[in-house]
């Protein structure tokens, strides 16, 4: 895997304040490039033999493949949960440019808009995580039990 590939990491937290605090720390320490804190989600899971149904906050973290393990170790050390959810989604190859999922060329943007100064560079990531297999058997086992629609 290319160590500079973008990897998305999912983490849940008991509340917004703790999600923001850990997210800020990971960005300040340059382990994550960006952290999106989503509003309340509902999590239904089994813990210590009981089915739990709890509100949580979901964070989407963007990092590189080279930083995933350092991010995971730091997040586990600082996370308020005894067993935090830290799921790194492996990168997938980009879709072909014929589907329209290619970065726009700054030169083409300028020509279309009539602008004289260069357009800002934009990064567009495309791809799909469907059909991936992780290197962690417990994740693959869990995915195998999830019904597909």
Polypeptide structure, described:
There is one protein chain. The chain has a domain at 6-91: Alpha-Beta Plaits (2-Layer Sandwich). The chain is built from 4 helices and 4 strands. The chain has helices spanning 16-28, 68-78, 106-113, 137-145, and strands at 6-13, 34-47, 50-64, 86-89. Strand 2 and strand 3 form a beta hairpin. A 4-stranded antiparallel beta sheet has the order 2-3-1-4, covered by helices on one side. The protein is an alpha+beta fold and 149 residues long. Mean pLDDT is 74; it is low at 98-112 and 118-149. The longest helix has 13 residues, at 16-28.
Short recap of the structure:
The protein is of the alpha+beta class. It has helices at residues 16-28, 68-78, 106-113, 137-145; strands at residues 6-13, 34-47, 50-64, 86-89.
Report the sheet with the most strands, covering strand number, pairing sense and barrel closure.
4 strands, antiparallel
Poorly predicted spans: 98-112, 118-149
* Gross geometry: globular
Residues in helices, as a percent range: 25-40%
Oligomer description: single chain
β content, as a range? 25-35%
CATH-defined architecture of the domain at 6-91: 2-Layer Sandwich
Q: Spatial order of the strands in the main sheet?
A: 2-3-1-4
Would you tell me which CATH topology of the domain at 6-91 applies?
Answer: Alpha-Beta Plaits
Distance between the termini: 30 Å
Can you give keywords for this protein?
single chain, 149 residues, alpha+beta, Alpha-Beta Plaits, four-stranded antiparallel beta sheet, 4 helices, disordered C terminus
